[in-house]
Amino acid sequence: MNGADGSRVDRLVAALATAGPDASPLDAYLVTNLVNVEYLTGFTGTNGACLVSNERRVFLTDFRYAERAAAIQGWETEIISGLWLEGLARRLEGRTGFEDDQVTVRTSNQLKQAAGSAELLEAGGQVERLRRVKDPDEIELIAAAAAMTDRLYELLIERGLSGQTEVQVDNWLTGWMREQGAEPSFPPIVASGPNGASPHAEPGPREIGPGELVTVDMGVKLDGYCSDCTRTFATGNEGDLDSLSREIYDVTLRANEAGLAAVKAGADGAAVDEVARAVIREAGYGQNFGHGLGHGVGLEIHEAPRLGPSSKDELIAGEVVTVEPGIYVSGATGVRIEDLAVVGEGGVERNLSSVTKELLFI
Ligand code: ZN
Ligand code: ZN
């Protein structure tokens, strides 16, 4: 269970003063996104909600979770029997914000209809905003997930890649994670040779040969928190690798380092992206980097903030973000290098990815 504690819900309650439309105040807030529910209460189950106001903190679930609900500290618990949405709606009072970015239009209409005199207002994103900045316990949990991922990279480096299919490597990576009591935080990417040209390649039956690049992007979910790290390896001997692959590796590495050097509290997500992107553009590969530079990581593998050309986010100390530039050459090869960094006041406070970024031939 994560370190959910009262200070998170205190911060949520404080935010209600301006959380309504046009920064109007709300009386209460209904949290239905299960990741947000977990963040506030520590509850991990398939059905639960939080109703939060100045006066009350109520955790709602159904009979299956009655026992788990009773163990949640600092919250009144109520068990909803019968129809879930009606049960929620019956408990709403006054101006209540809800996570309009998380519920379907149909659910939202049903809730509004059943809410009686309570006024339901679109006010999504409140808990996501709190989740951006990690508390020290969360940073340690993410660091532990990252350390496990680093260990797996070390084992992969010892084991090598040549002669196996992408699927075999993927199965081995995923199997190891499960043996350690973790889960993949997303399906690992093992993209060899020309498959590396696709940023989201799925592992396939292709056998990894000598003299090619192999991009491995993976992370674990451990005690609720995710890690995310990409390394690109070469196979065979140094002389086997073509000069294009070598060149795009070096450019991507410089972009990764420039991006990391630009990460600090107060920097704009778009500006950090541009620092790394400029390195790639100036090397002549501007058209070959088609995704954003990075994203926040926490309870979810992709969360706020975003580092990318259209990001409106300004970095805050305590956020954990990836820096993952890539160069993808269609039909030929690709590189991505991704680190996981804790944002500090004056720069990266801690790089949680410790696997070497020197091009290894494995
Ligand atoms: Zn990744
Ligand atoms: Zn990532």
Short description:
This protein is an alpha+beta fold and 362 residues long. It has ten helices and 19 strands.
Describe the fold and architecture.
The chain has helices at 6-15, 34-41, 66-70, 84-90, 105-114, 126-132, 136-159, 166-179, 243-262, 269-282, and strands at 28-31, 49-53, 57-61, 76-79, 95-98, 119-122, 183-184, 189-192, 213-218, 220-222, 225-226, 229-234, 294-296, 303-307, 320-323, 326-329, 333-336, 339-343, 348-351. With 362 residues, it is α+β, with helices and mostly antiparallel strands. It has 2 domains: 6-130, 3-Layer(aba) Sandwich (Creatine Amidinohydrolase, Chain A, domain 1); 136-351, Creatinase/methionine aminopeptidase superfamily (Creatine Amidinohydrolase), CATH 3.90.230. The strands form 6 sheets. A 6-stranded mixed beta sheet has the order 4-3-2-1-5-6. The longest helix is centred in the middle third of the chain and has 24 residues, at 136-159. The two termini are 37 Å apart. Bound molecules: zinc ion (2 copies). The site of one zinc ion has 5 residues, from loops.
